[in-house]
Amino acid sequence: MDLELSQEQKLIQSTAREFAQAELEPVAARLDQGGDQAAFLDNLKKLAGLGFMGLNVRDEYGGAQAGMVAFSLAITEIARACASTAVTVSVNNLVCSVIQSVGTEIQKKTYIPKICSGEFFAGSFALTEPGAGSDPASMTTSAVLHGNEWVLNGTKRFITSAPYAGVFIVWAVTDKAAPKGKGISCFLVPAGTPGLVVGRAEQKMGQHAAATNEVILEQCHISQDAILGTLNGGLRVAVGELLGGRIGIGSLALGVGLAAMDYATRYARDRVQFNQEITRFQAIQWMIADAYTELEAARLLLMQAAFREERGKAFAREAAMAKLFATEAANRACYSALQMAGGYGYSKEFPLERYARDVRVTSIYEGTSEIQRTIIAREILKEISQG
Amino acid sequence: MKILVCVKQVPDMESRFKVNSEGVWYDEKDLAFKLNEYDEFALEQAVRVKEQLGNTVDITVLSIGPDRVVEAIKKGLAMGGDRGIHIKDDHPWQKDPWQIASVIAAFARDKNFDLVFTGLQSQDRGSAQVGGILAELLGFACATTLVAFELNGDLVTVRQELDGGMCAILKFKLPAVVTCQMGLNTPRYPTLPNIMKARQKELLAFPVTNFIGPKNLAATERMYLPEKKGHGLVLEGDVNEVADRLVGVLKEKTTVLR
Ligand SMILES: Cc1cc2nc3c(=O)[nH]c(=O)nc-3n(C[C@H](O)[C@H](O)[C@H](O)COP(=O)(O)OP(=O)(O)OC[C@H]3O[C@@H](n4cnc5c(N)ncnc54)[C@H](O)[C@@H]3O)c2cc1C
Question: Nearest CA of chain A to the CA of B150: how many Å?
């Protein structure tokens, strides 16, 4: 057994860390306050230039072929500085990965290099609808074949990066009569296609720099060969690809949790009350001990899930466990970090309130904690009933 | 053209240092290591020469040290080096700058390098001697503390940083050794695809005993952390009087007022 990272993984981690400290961290607070989208997009371009948008993409499509462990490390380091940037990078990688795994050669060559190189700031993953969140199989967006074109109609909600995405992966019902979940297909819709309208922006609690919008499809015509993967096989693609996405979101949460605890612990070491540094109080020490222990456990769960993926082993259960635990541990860590800093933690003078807001959504998107538990239990029960 | 870039791996300078049990170097256990910052400028400049002249340039990245220094070499390869040389030595700190330069010279002597880049100094030892001694041993021209570098044919023009904010322009012919100051350029981040592709580049390892040369000229007697200085001076009392005393202190103890 060897828990040591490879030299390449270490170099990717340190490159991500150095870039994040130099370029992302100085602007993160300003981006959170809104307004400077140009700086945000500029950083995405730089990250693309370094290869962070296609960590698992093959060389021929402009990717780094660095593997899931490196992906997890990179997202954690980016999130330590800016969660909004990290989620955008994570979703871009997810979009590349979907296209790479089920796309035709032409689709791969058309879209993946554009996301990897930064020619597209982003790609969007449009699954969720107003009436279909945890239960995507209940979606109502439809795609009907008219001659040699698909016509899409429906509304997607909470779509990350929609205003600056170059391409959207859109899920839609292609067979209404099929059993639930068996009649959904996946489509590639380029930005600017008539009938694809980026709707209103979500007013969110955190992750303000990353746009989240409604996407409306209104008589949106796309060519017949814009279908991605097999007809009516779309939901399986979403479910399968979200496994990797979960490692991304868990890693993101870990990064925010670590940033919060590192900040709060340094602060506590200098803060004096009752004539002593507050780290002398056992109450503070326990917060530090508990949070770092949980974050370390989260890191190991993430590494384990990523490692299994790289080895071609089943990792659905491990990815769900890692996302569940990492996002909840990171939420607790941010809560403790803010508490440790007292009133200053609540003030915008410190970054802790931003971390606490940014981390909150990690246990909601790409499958809520409740859904992760459902998956974990299902996987365990499946194994037990087989045995 | 053949270029050699000599790089060193040093601890992260934010680390908490402890003196080792022999009392002559710092304890390396539990330290995180990274590429010496000055060497990043050396690597970047070498890669820029390659970009200027094209693929006829071949860059060798060399480091002396234990296995962990391979990470520093790989960073150099990911930034654009063509091949790596790892000279294995578990205790490079036991060698003084003269010996380190001698090891590099013994490796480089018959390799026909035209240009050698090093950092101005290492962040841990800070001797700033290796580049200069290496030039002498190889019989190459030498320029230190570069803040600008230009190559035309076999003519090198550099700007050297001197004390007191002065600079000097130097011109000399290849072959040469140059040592790079921070700010010479903006070192690139290695891209992820290049980090992965660097695995395919040649990376040869040799025991340092292959290049063993002279005995050391200087040995470290003792290493210690500076004693904690006393607390700051707090002047109290009447404002006019305090101001006078402050002027007195500044005149006496500093060069701020003379
Ligand atoms: C900032 C942000 C960005 C997002 N980005 C994207 C994106 O890029 N693409 C995309 O497609 N989607 C995106 N989403 C949508 C996100 O994935 C959904 O919000 C999430 O899946 C939950 O769906 P919902 O909001 O409809 O909640 P619901 O599904 O309505 O859930 C409400 C509550 O009920 C619980 N619940 C539901 N079903 C069960 C069950 N079976 N058992 C137990 N509890 C259950 C949930 O856990 C939750 O607590 C984003 C969301 C946000 C907030």
Answer: 27
The pTM (predicted TM-score) of the whole model is 0.93
Which of B59, B72, B3, B40 is closest to B184 using CA atoms?
B40
In a shared domain, residues B126 and B199: yes
Query: Is the minimum distance from the CB of A15 to ligand 1 under 6 angstroms?
Result: no
Does the Cβ of A159 fall within 6 Å of ligand 1? yes
For A164, residues 6+ apart whose C-beta sits below 8 A from its C-beta are A37, A41, A121, A122, A211
Render pLDDT for B81-136 as a digit per residue (tens, 0 to 9): 999 999 999 999 999 999 999 999 999 999 999 999 999 999 999 999 999 999 99
Active site residue A366: yes
Domains defined along chain A, listed by start: 7-120 (1.10.540.10), 125-232 (2.40.110.10), 235-386 (1.20.140.10)
**pLDDT tens track for A336-351:** 999 999 999 999 999 9
Residue B192 shares a structural domain with residue B243: no
Distance A363 CA to ligand 1 centre (A): 9
Q: What is the rounded distance in angstroms from the CA atom of residue B161 to the CA atom of residue A7?
A: 35
Range of the domain at B242: 230-258
**How many structural domains are present in chain B?**
2
- The CA A298 to ligand 1 mean position distance, Å, reads 22
Q: CA B162 to CA A30: how far, in whole Å?
A: 39
> Which residues are bridge partners to A126 per DSSP?
A170
Which phi and psi (to 5°) does residue A144 adopt? Answer: -125, 135
Position B219 in a domain: no
Tell whether B222 is covered by a domain: no
The response to whether residue A364 sits with its C-beta less than 6 Å from ligand 1 reads yes
The best mutation among A170, A252, A328, A365 to test binding of ligand 1, ranked by most ligand atoms within 8 Å of the C-beta, falls on A365
Task: Judge if the upstream peptide bond of residue B175 is cis by omega within 30 degrees of 0.
Answer: yes
